[in-house]
Amino acid sequence: MGKREDGSWRNVIYLGFVSLFTDISSEMIFAILPLYMVMKGMGGEIIGAAEGFAEAIANVLKIFSGWLSDKVRKRKPLVIAGYSLSAVTKPLFAYARTGIEIALIRVGERVGKGIRTTPRDVIIALSTREKKRGRAYGVHRMMDTTGAVIGPLLSFFLLPLFSYEGIFLFSLIPASIAIVILILLVREPEGEETSFSSGGKFSHKFLLFMVPVAVIGLASFSYAFILLRSVDFVSQDIAPLLYLLINISYAIFAYPIGLLGDRIGLPITFSLPYVSLMIVSYGFMNELNILFVILLLVLYGLYKSSLDTLGRAISSVLSAKGVIGQGMGLYHLTLGLLMLTANMIAGYLWSIDHTLPFLYALIIAAIGLVILVLYIRWLSKAR
Fold this sequence. Notes:
Layout: H1 2-30, H2 33-39, H3 44-72, H4 76-89, H5 99-126, H6 133-158, H7 164-170, H8 172-185, H9 204-219, H10 223-230, H11 239-264, H12 266-269, H13 271-283, H14 290-318, H15 324-352, H16 356-382
C-alpha cells in the first residue's frame, strides 16, 4: 500500500501543479478575450456561436480520448498532447487579425482541453485508492482553480504594461512550465491488468448515476448569468472581483468536500451541488443587497466545486475496470452537452425576465435532488 499511496499523491500533486500553471495561462487570456473579440469586430452572436462550437467539440473529444486511453492503456501521451496543443495555440491570439481567426484558435485551444481532460482524470483515479478519490480530486480541483484566481489578477496588473497581444504571448510561459512538470514528474499508473472493452460493460450503478448527473447538467447554466444578475444589484465595475470571489470559494471548498465525500460517502455528499444551486437560484430571484450577493456567490462556488470534485470521484469509482476512460468520458460528455442546453434555455429566459433562469434552475435542481435520493436508496438496497 505504501508504494501506491506515495505514487498516488505524487501524481495528484504534480497534476495539480500542471493544471495550476495551465489555468494561469488560460485565465489570464480568457479574462480579456471577450473584450479583444469585440475590438476585432465580433458581435455577440458570433462570440456565442464560437464558444458553443468550441465547447461542443471539447465535450465530444473527452469521450473519444477516454476510449482511446482505455484501448492503448497509456494515458500520459494523450495528456501531454492535449496540454501541448492548448499551450501552442493560445499565443496565436496575438497574431489573429479577424474574428474568424480568433474563433478558430479558440476551437483549437478547446480541442486540446478535450483531448487531455479524461486521460488526466483517469491517471488520478488509477493512482489513488477508491477510499481517497474524493480527496484526490479535491486537491486537484483546488490547485486548478487557484490558477484561475492568479490568471485574471496577472492580466489586471500586466494589461497597463503590455498590450493584449503581449499578454497572449506571455501566456506561453506558465503553459510551458506546466508541460515540463507533466513530462518530467507525472508517471503512468502501473498495475492496470484488465483487458480493454470497447463499451457495453458499464455497470448499472454507473449508468443510473448518469441520470442525476444529466439533470444537474440541465440546471447548470454559465456563471455569466450569475455575474449579470449580480450587477443588477451592485456596480458593474466590481464584476471582475465577483468572478474572482467565485473561484476563490471554489478553491477553498474543493478539498474539504472531497474529504467529506470519502468520510460519509460520495453519493450522499453529491447532494451538495443540488442543494447549494437551489439556494443560489432562489436567492437571485429576489432583490438583494451587496452582502447577500457575496453570500450567494460563495455558495455558487461551493456548488461548482462540489459538482466537479464529487462527480469525477463517483464516476471513477463506479466505472468498471477496463472502461474507466470511457466511463469518465461519458460523464464529461453528458454533463457538458446538457450544460450547453441549459445555457440556451437560460439565454432565452433571460431575454424575457432576469429572474426566470433562476426559477428554471431551482425547479430542475429540485427534481434532480429527488432523483438522486431515489438513486441513493436504490444503491443502498443493491449492496
